[in-house]
Amino acid sequence: MDASFKIVPHPKVLCNYFSLAGNIDAQAETQLMALPAKVNQQLVKFDFGNAGRINSMGIALLLRCFKRIKEEKRAEIQVLQVNATNTMLFKMTGIFLLAAAAKD
Amino acid sequence: MQQNKTILALFADNADAEAMSSCFFHVPEVISVIADRFLKVTLGEIASARIDPGLAVISSALYPGKRPQLVEELRGYFPGLEILVLAPASMPPHSLERFMLDQVRHLIIENRQEKAATGDGDQPLSVAIGNLILKRQWHLGQYVKGGTEIQEFQLSFSEEKEQIIKALEDSIVGDSMEYEMLRQKGALLADEMLENAFYGAPKSDDGMKIFRKGERRQILPDEGIVFRFAFDGETLAMEIKDGWGSLGADMVLEYLAKNSADMGAADDAGGRGLFIIWRFLDHFHVCVNPGKETLIGGHLKKSSQIPPETIHGFHITTTG
């Protein structure tokens, strides 16, 4: 898997859909901080199917990004295809307080 | 009063003592006490007999829930007493707030089913008692089978992180989901330990971080960042040492306690990384020589049954 982080938007009806690929760490800051401005729907889905390792800095960036989406855009957030390790990480760090785990 | 190697073991009642009895089977010089209404009398008699225990092992059935003031009471009789709380994996403590207030720096979560299945002699409590009584440091060789190869990396550049993580992943050979989970957890643990050493540990005299997270950097000659790991087929043990010694024992406990209680804080002052390391390891140790060295390590079993959402064991020690 290519470890470098990228956000790939997918056109969908009635929701914003973003695939997050690669490791999510300090290198993801610029892209994640710019993402809330791209939200223009009431439902935002994040696909972690191609995401690699997420470290504590990555978690901090995701928390900030999700909080801004909820506060500024009043949108609902869903996360998809989160592997078992990242699911544990999301549970213990409060990500699931901001985003619901959903199936495709 | 002469301090000796006597251990005080405190239980909530006879049933609690019976449930914990197998943990103390190989431990000599244990005074077992039921913390009933005669506790103060019993402790007074022990002190009057000129016995000054080096260590108290307290059942979690007693502290902090049932008798939150217990540590304070014990230290009234034995000021230099080291405290270790022992809890079954089926019922870990709910919070570390009382631990933080009382500066209780040792907690073992005992997985009795696993212990019964493996019959291992070197259980966490035996290792802990040996280390605390004899003032030895925890090291990763204590967690893996004798003769297991220990891989060691002296860091020169922050970019070495990925190759180290790959070496760790490659050492965990196996196709099952258990092996895959262990590789993922091991990779994340190594990432957090290395990031903490590169960016969290280096602080100026006024306590400010010197390097920004994620920036590429060369490791300074005196930093002495060394990462080690070993995998014996069942247990993955890891540790990292840095030459900063900037992590205070009380700060560690505060990070663990506050992150357990308050999820979702966006700011990461280093506490979340340490919290993740603690929760992904089955057992975690930190040893700090203030201003000189910090060692962070622990172990994780392939078949670990301790969920990351619950409180895990730890040992926080200082030297120097």
Automatic annotation (TrEMBL), chain A:
Superkingdom as given in the UniProt entry: Bacteria
Organism: Geotalea daltonii (strain DSM 22248 / JCM 15807 / FRC-32) (Geobacter daltonii)
Gene3D superfamilies noted in UniProt: STAS domain (3.30.750.24)
Protein name in the entry: STAS domain-containing protein
